[in-house]
Design a protein that fits this description.
single chain; 153 residues; alpha+beta; five-stranded mixed sheet; two-stranded antiparallel sheet; 3 helices; elongated
């Protein structure tokens, strides 16, 4: 993953929980991984696991700041057809909106949200790779003909 900031005067953040009041004006960066344990532990998550590299770059000015977060890796989700785990690649970079007046940033949570919004809407194995037993069950429940329309009088 290439650096987003071009400046060499960048300070490294030592934590993924950034308290903005404790930072001086300047540019900061953080690099960390979101592992299977973290990804699957989020409440009501569709993620079953994964391994994602995260880079966050923060430019702090006197009155405001910019936060750019980049994620790259893969996550496991359930296939919409057979419900078996499948791997989905994720790669995204975004300038994040943060609430005005925010005092701290949870970089892990912001990266998690970036992963979620960049997942495809549907998750399904390539044709022929779903669980064969589930495929048989699905075929048994498919309609083979269009439903008949009631007669109009």
């Amino acid at each position: 993953m290439q650096p987003i900031l071009s400046t060499r005067m960048v300070k490294t953040l030592n934590s993924t929980l950034v308290v903005l009041d404790q930072l001086a004006v300047g540019q900061y960066e953080s690099a960390f991984r979101l592992d299977a344990e973290y990804l699957s532990s989020q409440e009501a998550t569709e993620l079953l696991g994964g391994d994602v590299e995260v880079r966050a770059e923060l430019t702090l000015r006197q009155t405001d700041f910019d936060l750019r977060v980049a994620v790259e890796g893969s996550v496991q989700v359930a296939c919409d057809r057979c419900l078996e785990p499948m791997t989905v690649s994720v790669s995204a970079c975004e300038l994040m909106d943060v609430e005005p007046g925010a005092r701290e940033l949870d970089l892990r949570w912001l990266a998690y949200e970036l992963i979620i919004v960049n997942l495809p809407l549907t998750h399904s194995h390539p044709e022929g790779e779903c669980n064969p037993q589930m495929q048989v069950l699905l075929q048994n429940h498919l309609c083979s003909a269009a439903p008949e329309e009631p007669e109009k009088q």
